[in-house]
Write a structure and sequence with these properties.
Chain B: Keywords: Oxidoreductase. The complex is a heterotetramer of chains A (about 180), B (about 1000), C (about 100) and D (about 425). By secondary structure, chain B is α+β, with helices and mostly antiparallel strands. In chain B, about 20% of the residues lie in helices and about 30% in strands. Chain B has six domains: about 160 residues, 2Fe-2S iron-sulphur cluster binding domain, sarcosine oxidase, alpha subunit, N-terminal domain (Ubiquitin-like (UB roll)); about 190 residues, FAD/NAD(P)-binding domain (3-Layer(bba) Sandwich), CATH 3.50.50.60; about 90 residues, Orthogonal Bundle (Arc Repressor Mutant, subunit A), CATH 1.10.10.1100; about 90 residues, Gyrase A, domain 2; about 90 residues, Aminomethyltransferase beta-barrel domains (Alpha-Beta Plaits, 2-Layer Sandwich), CATH 3.30.70.1400; about 100 residues, Aminomethyltransferase beta-barrel domains (Elongation Factor Tu (Ef-tu), domain 3, Beta Barrel). The model of chain B has no long low-confidence stretch (mean pLDDT about 95). Chain C has a four-stranded antiparallel β-sheet with strand order 3-4-5-6. In chain C, a hairpin with a 5-residue loop joins strand 5 and strand 6. The chains are: A alpha+beta (about 180), B alpha+beta (about 1000), C alpha+beta (about 100), D alpha/beta (about 425). Chains A and C meet through strand 8 of A and strand 2 of C. Strand 32 of chain B pairs antiparallel with strand 16 of chain D.
Chain lengths: ~180, ~1000, ~100, ~425
Amino acid sequence: MLDRSLVARRDRPLGAAPTSNDRARVAPAPAGVRLSLRVRGAEGLSSLGLGLAINRMSAEGERFSARLGPDEWLLGAGEAELETLEGEIAAALGDRFRSVVDVSHRNVAVEIAGPDAASALNAGCPLDLSDAAFPAGSATRTLLGKAEIVLLRPTAEPLYRVECWRSFATYVHGFLVEAARTA
Amino acid sequence: MAQPHRLPQGGRVDRATPIRFSFDGRTIEGFAGDTVASALLANGVHLVGRSFKYHRPRGILTHGSDEPSALLQVDRGPGKIDPNNRATVVEARNGLTTSSQNRWPSLAFDVGAVNDLLSSVFVAGFYYKTFMWPRSFWDKVYEPVIRAAAGLGVAPQVADPDAYANRHAHCDVLIVGAGPAGLAAALAAAKSGKRVILADEQPEFGGSLLHDTTATIDGQSAEAWRIAAIEELDGYETVTLLPRTTAFGYYNHNHVALTERVTDHRETPAKGAPRERLWQVRAGEVVLATGSHERPLVFADNDRPGVMLAESVRVFINRYGVAPGRRIVFVTSGASAYAAAADAKAAGLEVVMVDLRPERDCGPEAADLRLKGVEVLTGQTVIETKGRKRVAGLVVAPCANGTVGDRRVIACDCVGMSGGWTPAVHLFSQSRGKLAYDEGRDAFLPGVSAQAERSVGAAAGLYDLATCLTSGYAAGAAAAGVAGGRAFAASQTPTGFTPVRDLPTDANPAKVRAFVDFQNDVTAKDLKLAMREGFESIEHVKRYTTTGMATDQGKTSNMNALGIVSKALGRPLPAIGTTTFRPPYTPVTFGALVGPARDALFDPIRTTPIHEWAAEHGAAFENVALWRRAWHFARPGEDMHAAVDRECRAVREGVGIFDASTLGKIEVVGPDAAEFMNRMYVNPWTKLGVGRCRYGLMLKEDGYILDDGVVARMAEDRFHVTTTTGGAPRVMNHMEDYLQTEWPDLDVFLTSTTEQWAVIAVQGPRARDVIAPLVSGIDLSNEAFPHMSVREGAICGAPCRLFRVSFTGDLGFEINVPADYGRAVWEAVFAAGEPYGITPYGTEAMHVLRAEKGYIIVGQETDGTVTPDDVGLAGMIAKAKKDFVGKRSLARPDVVAAGRKQLVGLATETAALVLDEGAQIVADPGEPIPMTMLGHVTSSYFSANCGRSIALALVADGRALMGRTLHVTTPAGFAAATVCDPVFFDSEGGRIHA
Amino acid sequence: MLLIDCPFCGTRPETEFRCGGEAHIARPTDPSALDDGAWAEHLFVRSNPRGLHAERWIHAHGCGRWFNAVRDTYTDRFVETYKAGEQPSHPIDDARA
Amino acid sequence: MRRFSLASLLSEAVGGHQGWGRQWRAPEPKPSYDVVIVGGGGHGLATAYYLATVHGITNVAVVEKGWIGGGNTGRNTTIIRSNYLYDESAHLYEHALKLWEGLSQELNYNVMFSQRGVLMLAHNIHDIQSFKRHVYANRLNGIDNEWLSAEECKAFCPPLNISREARYPVLGGALQRRAGTARHDAVAWGYARGADARGVDILQNCEVTGVRRDAGGAAIGVETTRGFIGAKRVGVVAAGNTSRVMDMAGVRMPLESYPLQALVSEPVKPVFPCVVMSNAVHAYISQSDKGELVIGAGTDQYTSYSQQGGLHITNHTLDAICEIFPQFTRMRMLRSWGGIVDVTPDRSPIIGRTPVDNLFVNCGWGTGGFKATPGSGHVFAHTLATGEPHPINAPFTLDRFRTGRLIDEAAAAAVAH
């Protein structure tokens, strides 16, 4: 039996070095837990953000819930919270039919923050990111250049979290760095 | 003397900041704020280029983006050289190197000008009538000569070092054009607090106000009003001001594309700043304040350098402080040129005014100008210009009712001509709005809008300053959804003109060359020839003569061409049609359209968690869809074939390790999951036990194979589906489509887990020995964990789904671990395997190993026209199932008919010969062409394990041809090969169960 | 680039969507009961009108839901969008006539 | 018909070209014709020309709603090649290519057919397999096509970037040297002039509004904006609008109409010696005899009759072009436009009979109809003249969608692993 420490650290695709630019800072976000929750008719429930409107999110610390579609939520939590979160889902949904799939390793997040963050995102994201159209608490799947992303804006700060599939992370990160440079 | 034609005062140029650039090797001095054109004129340079066909000397016709003639090659530094820059648009600055185009050996002495002497032969469409004989001369002589003569400037030769940016933007009101109407619209819209974008192609906002120096608005000078307006707009946080930004495309649903020139005008651009930025604006409402273009007059030799548009003469004087000539003749059929003449006179230049209109049709402007001491001739026509490479005189004659009187030569060094105005309705037309011909204004005006759009000011045919302001303001307010208009008091604008076509002349009409399209050398005579030959639709005329198809896209020529055709055919102008305007309004660099999508950002390169390890261990990679996969691991001194042979042998003899992470994976979850799988795949799934796997085959509804892959049942209501690497998105989409739209009643959800799992295939007789020490919670024995089963447990402490599957035909496992653990587990397995000589292998060895077993690869053995039976997989089809996607199509007559191509093996007569994949197969190599082809080779390799080459092929009725010798194409002719079973290795299949 | 009103997410740019062709062509419940002509008709024949067209779209890079739309194929203007399984508020053929 | 030649051109030059007459007449419609062809594009005009010249049927009208050659004939990127995989397609396009090779002389109209070679780039191993399959199949069909290494591709097309560092490196290419381009408008005009000279009436600004059928259901003519025109046989060759016209006859078609975009750059001195196509990165490019780089973009994803597509299609095309030719980013797009292409389920054309007697159709050429123009007209003329398909178009039936005998070139090139 090999030492468990071999896998104690998660090997994330992007290096840790942040890319600094005063007006749009791009940095990989730390790893965490991500669950894709699919369930129908759960909007009446209040826990886990199930009551959120489509394309809205709630966030507290590392925990967040983003409703990406009528029956789809992306749930996030700190790295050690997988079982806790699964437990909460079970408690909230009982034996209601649902699909819970661990996508913690599928998703990679990059953050972009600063006064030009939205402009930089708009180099590749076709959405209206103004405060009126994409206020604090917005979350949606969309595009960044040629990659699909989930774009999250947890707070009113000009800070966005861009989640993509792991193999697109290099592209997404590179795109944001270039966009921040030329924004 | 430097800048001998710079006026002593006036203009918006910064006389405190001199600049220099070069033109054809000569140093040109100018001031900041000059365009290349204005600086050239300040230095008395009028001859700046040669025309496309006849190589006629050409000068500067206009002052803006409608310029057809003054096109230059511009060198902005290493790698930054490009052709066809309009001198009237390029902002002059230090460090530019400009040169004229389409001339050899020099601009002044151009050999190509011989074409001008042959112009009586080189008429419109002449090339359709000749160059056909002898036939062989076309390829060898005529065409090369024609092509060598074509083109203007020289294409860039090296990769462009500049960067280009892209920006998606949204606003409530987009205003295109910041002339008086646009500024007024912006002021009104901005007040609403809504988001406004105001864009103008010029470096400064103001449009005509920049040179209409005598105008007043609301009691102040136009300049003071302009400055105040811009200041006010700048004060709004909700307003974005975009100078140097051309709206070039108006697409569906108010998607408007603009290109912003960010750094070309700067000597030392900010670090990282892009050369240009493409703005893709989605606007709630659009206000088009795009202005209008002045029309040239059509008379003989109207293309002589020094002949310009009247308003452009005014712009050069007022905006740039440049005298385009010392003795200027204005020729006009309307009022606006009088303002130009008055300003020229005021600047101290000699001026003569020639009005084509009879005295009675001239407004008060004629008398006003006479009062200023200018000679005004009315009721004239223009016969021709005098001079060679610069106009030296204008020949005019009185003309009434078509009768031309005595000629008079007016000596001059510049002509300012005006044939009236054409609203710039390009964007309106692109928006698919309907144009309506307005006889009074002799123009097509915006009619019915197709999108949320309004045209204002000169773009709507409104030329009077106060009207421009009022219409602009009203449109801005309406676009912003707020009530309110306001009136503007402004100085009067001389407006109105009499439409003229080609001017009456006393010369032999067959000899007169009066240019309509300056760049493409299309004359009025050419248009008439086209009509004589039956080209009557304006689109036909355009295509036959090439009028309007030059880099200016006919901005100065379209209305003249239409008018001449209309007059000649005696049909009303709208009956001739107007050309549909297409993007772009002015030419747009490819770079701006590409934006950041270059090099690493052209297309994402998808890599697996094990990619870096493979790179560190000498892997060569191949592209598969967006993925980069390890192809083989050649060691130093090995070529690819040696490496693949070694990798293949290692798997059969010991153990190999392979990165299969790119396989698509879908988690199918729900109480109806098995039923859903039954409908999507040809196979049955209901009875597949939990913990068991099955090879699944999926068809499109047309019955052809879409994809395949191993599917594991993780729980009663949960399947772990795998797909091909390239097929993953396609399969997911296919399944979602049926699930959501055909069977929404099924309780099933799909989640892509392709990237959640790293997949490490450990294959070979020693596979179990290698992984056994690392795995916990799973009994790996053959009995407890047989071939085609799956278990959940842990490896190296990481959770894993361990598959006992094989794509090699040997004992094998596929370890699925969460991706972040992929590399660590891979390294652990690799370390554990070292005692067994574990060998990393790539996709090429994987292909060989599976071909030895006759396993198909979708996309290689199949191509979108192949059924399960064609590849010998009809046995997969669940006979009991009434329906699944594609089933019905398998029963179509030509799908069940004999003669379909079937998968077989091919053994070459020469064992070492590896056939080409894609090689064709015939029965009789002696058959004359066209030959009967029986099929083609789908896969072909040298198999070290078989000690010979092996091939798979699709052959018509192939299964009936076992043992037959067929003939296969090779680069050297046909090679004989025997049809055989597609399984070349371990045909009993025992190894897989070891 | 079209602007499409996803019934779940609101208006979004076309690049987030994939078009699935003509709408309201239900897969037969028993394809084997169809003769070859009828099956080919189901698979391949499309109304392809110049004018109003009911078509399927999926908000692929959004909520991932298939829905339907009525669009004028001459002006490219959308008349309406509605959820899968629903019918347009005005029958297409009437509106087309 | 006044013969075109250098001599006639020179003699006209003396007189200021006053002596040229109409290249085709503008007649009034007759009450009826032996054959009415709906659609005055290249294919329709070629059909009329071959009806007259090959079959001696001259009582023919070509009915065009706008101006001839104004549809896809005048909107395509003019690529001509015949290196198709399947025998059916290969024979059809090779038939056309052979006609192209003598077309200027045959029509006495210089269509500027330029056999500058079409080079199709292979960017991955699948492309290599697929292209070699084409090369071998073409050769056995008597069609020239050859495999080139990356270096040979570069030698044939010097602007090509063959760096191994490229996102999709060029691994080689398939070259058909006899392939090339032609002047699209001239093709329509040349056929019109030739057909007209033999008595065919070309009726422009004449839109078909209905197809009249007799009690037995057979087509007997077309209603048009210039009145009813009787016909013994009606041939519909109305690319982009086939579904609409066939709908008038009550025939529903396996077609969808998509916008297809193309663009040209500003003209530059010769820089691009051939045609280059890249399926993997979705780009094709050549240089016109005027010096413009002619670039084909893709279709939009939705059906439309607007002749207008989205900017993102253009952008993606230029991404691809500049990936293969990075020196072109400073070139400028001069003009872009859209056409409407009819696409069949197998992307191959339908040429032949319809369920309505005396009504024939030639449609579904998708993005590749221009290259087939002479061949298409030739075999369709045969079909209209005899009522039966020419052996070359016999496989291209409407019925193949029922029987499953599809001719799917695109599927044969499908990429998957």
